């Protein structure tokens, strides 16, 4: 972890250690055009992105949310039957001052769109029908992340929305979202790919015989048909490769502008916080604007007369009640309180460690809930919690105890 990483996104003023993230200031600032939710898989990025999009729309922004979560429950929570690669309007109450659209990234369809845009019809037909391309566009590592950035660039260029909220793809490393365009570009322009493409023009024709000898050896290793498909793909794709690289670089620069704000999402556990820390370091190194950190599924201590009761005291009192064989419900409540206190203390240690490494980082905590979000009211409650309010807890049934299962989305 680094010593100091200060947020610089829109709506952020006077950073200091542990400063709350002002979500409403971020969403209301018309300079904010893109919000990117990133973090490890399973920390609540998708729900966070959807809740931010809904809150922004109800506060007056023309918003579109790009998600990569194929679960139908997210579409249902927005009042839609399904989501696909085309932005669909989300029905909002009349009180909403803006509009909301949502879409689910289809990486192959997006890849196909780019090919058709940059290649002439015949060349595009050759590429789209090529077996190697079909594998590349559906299963190559990094394609989903690359296409998420590609779709972001398309939406920004269209000018149809004044705020785009991006739910980055789930992956083992949150850094994949930033690395994918370069990784895919290196693959497509790599020495092996170029070597396997037969020379066709100029003095390189003289090497044709030697290439054929080497190619026959390689063909025995990888298969003659595979080699033929690869050669055909590279030959056809060569004319559109420059367009891919140019678009990737343009979108990458877009992510560095002041109009973009990265929101890093984590849960209060060691692995997720470590991943979030790495991502915050990378954002700083790449001069990308960090808005702040969302800590999902936290366990704040309840308010009331018993809030100051420590874990050891609660367990001691529960033990006394058990020995006297009286008030079993009170003893159970004391044990649950002790678990809650210890969970809260563990989370506070992780939070303090994060803030000591990233001084000035802005943070907002969203309490754990006993059930998943299943409608706009649930998303609205998450949005209220993100904005620092407390009414969101009641909209989904309160906060969860340490033993309850928290929602697991992307």
Topology of helices and strands:
Blueprint: H1 23-28, E1 34-38, H2 45-58, E2 62-67, H3 72-77, E3 88-89, E4 99-104, H4 107-118, H5 121-129, H6 131-139, H7 143-158, E5 163-167, H8 176-188, H9 191-195, H10 208-222, H11 224-254, E6 260-266, H12 270-285, E7 290-298, H13 311-323, H14 328-357, E8 363-367, H15 376-386, H16 391-395
Short description:
51% of the residues lie in helices and 11% in strands.
Radius of gyration, whole Å? 25 Å
Mean pLDDT: 77
What is the succession of H and E elements? HEHEHEEHHHHEHHHHEHEHHEHH
CATH class: Alpha Beta
* CATH 4th-level superfamily: P-loop containing nucleotide triphosphate hydrolases
| Strand line-up across the major sheet | 3-4-2-5-1-6-7-8
Helix content: 40-55%
Number of helices: 16
Indicate the low-confidence ranges by residue numbers: 1-17, 200-222, 391-408
Describe what this molecule looks like in 3D.
The protein has 410 residues and is α/β, with parallel strands linked by helices. It has a single domain (23-303, 341-395), classed as P-loop containing nucleotide triphosphate hydrolases (Rossmann fold). Helices cover 51% and strands 11% of the residues. It contains 16 helices and eight strands. An eight-stranded mixed β-sheet has the order 3-4-2-5-1-6-7-8, with helices on both faces. Helix 12 links the parallel strand 6 and strand 7. Helix 2 packs across helix 15, helix 8 crosses helix 11 (224-254) and helix 10 (208-222) packs across helix 11 (224-254). The longest helix is centred in the middle third of the chain and has 31 residues, at 224-254. The protein is elongated, with a radius of gyration of 25 Å. The model is unreliable at 1-17, 200-222 and 391-408 (pLDDT under 50).
